[in-house]
Design goal:
Elements: H1 3-14, H2 28-39, H3 44-52, H4 56-67, H5 71-84, E1 92-98, H6 104-117, E2 122-127, H7 131-134, H8 137-144, H9 146-149, E3 154-157, H10 165-181, E4 186-191, H11 196-202, E5 207-212, H12 225-230, E6 233-236, H13 244-258, E7 271-274, H14 283-300, H15 302-329, H16 331-345, H17 351-370
């Protein structure tokens, strides 16, 4: 074979014939959808419209914006809240707390199912400032409320898993507004344990319910007087089986103790009652007590006055939170704070002088920015 024929064969073998153009292996439409999904942000009106028609998915997304630490999410959430405020306020807000092991989750499910069976729409919000350490404690509660979590007239929302008590409280208050705008006429605000969070919860609810146990030693031990003073009703749970008699005795003890407290500004006389979340015995009486309280305070004007006082409290609380956040985010303060703290711990400077130095640094930075 001649060299020329060999070259022709090689050239023919290496030649790529034009074929049918193959489609791209990347689905551009899918990419576009994924980008939109990743962004996940709707317009303010889309959020508000979805909330007002009771769309649970959009409500949950809006609450996620409230819980977000991103500034742009916070700003968007505030615009949503502002548009929802005119549609809020038409609910009964009930705070529920209790000592560990009192059966709070079971009680909330039993009481919640009773209310939804009466045609009410219930939102259960949890406030847990310690959840960053305990992890999953609230989500555990949600999984225990098996019936309520699938009830079409109920909505359960765990609290943020991080943040200070004040931050969690603010987010809970804002979540209440969205839930009310979504048509929920009964709001449960659950706290974990008995402590400082109860004071915060009492500042955002209409009725405060304290759950207790009978037969756990001295009935008035292990609970702060201040929390009992905040309670509009004390309910002794697990009043079933052999525990019924002990529960009745505990009820009398608590009722006597409640009479020793000063009269309430609402004119309401706090009561004690027994119930069994297991057998549902006494659950209807608790709803009667709450209704009696609401009717009394509505007729006296205290209900509206309390709501207005709570709004004023929220305003001042928000100012304090924003000032604190602005102070610690200040560039001069963040650079100086470790040095000042070290000098304080080495006793080279007093606490007052340390605070004054940081305040001076904060004001100097603000003056430069304003110029």
């Amino acid at each position: 074979m001649s060299k020329k024929n060999l070259n022709n064969i090689i050239e023919s073998a290496l030649k790529v014939n034009e074929g049918v153009e193959q489609p791209s292996s990347i689905n551009q439409a899918a990419v576009s959808r994924l980008k939109k999904k990743k962004q996940g942000i709707l317009s303010v009106n889309e959020y508000v419209d979805g909330i007002l028609i009771g769309n649970r998915t959009i409500l949950s997304k809006a609450i996620t914006l409230i819980e977000s630490s991103l500034i742009e999410h916070h700003k968007l959430a505030q615009r949503i809240i502002e548009k929802c405020i005119p549609h809020s306020g038409n609910s009964i807000r009930i705070g529920i707390t209790g000592v560990p092991g009192v059966g709070k989750s079971t009680f909330i499910e039993s009481f919640g199912k009773y209310l939804t069976s009466k045609g009410r729409k219930l939102a259960v919000l949890a406030i847990d400032p310690s959840s960053e350490k305990s992890k999953g404690s609230i989500l555990g509660d949600k999984t225990r409320m098996e019936e309520l979590s699938v009830d079409p007239n109920a909505f359960i929302r765990p609290s943020p898993s991080a943040g200070t008590l004040g931050g969690v409280a603010r987010k809970t208050r804002e979540t209440i507004i969205l839930c009310e705008a979504a048509g929920f006429d009964t709001i449960f605000i659950e706290t974990v344990g008995v402590g400082q969070s109860e004071t915060v919860v009492s500042s955002m609810v209409d009725f405060f319910l304290l759950l207790m146990l009978a037969g756990a030693g001295d009935e008035l031990q292990g609970i702060k007087r201040g929390i009992m003073e905040m309670a509009d009703a004390i309910v002794i749970n697990k009043a079933d089986g052999d525990n019924v008699m002990r529960a009745k005795m505990a009820r009398i003890e608590y009722q006597n103790a409640l009479h020793l407290f000063p009269p309430t500004t609402s004119g309401w006389v706090p009561v004690s009652e027994i119930c069994s979340s297991k057998t549902k015995e006494g659950i209807d009486k608790i709803w009667e007590i709450i209704n009696d309280y609401i009717n009394l305070t509505l007729n006296s004007g205290y209900f509206k006055t309390k709501r207005l006082e709570q709004a004023k409290y929220r305003m001042y609380e928000s100012i304090n939170e924003q000032l604190q956040e602005e102070f610690y985010q200040n560039e001069h303060v963040s650079k100086l704070i470790l040095e000042i703290e070290t000098n304080l711990l080495c006793q080279k400077i007093s606490a007052y002088a340390a605070a004054q130095k940081l305040m001076d640094a904060y004001h100097q930075q603000k003056e430069k920015t304003e110029k």
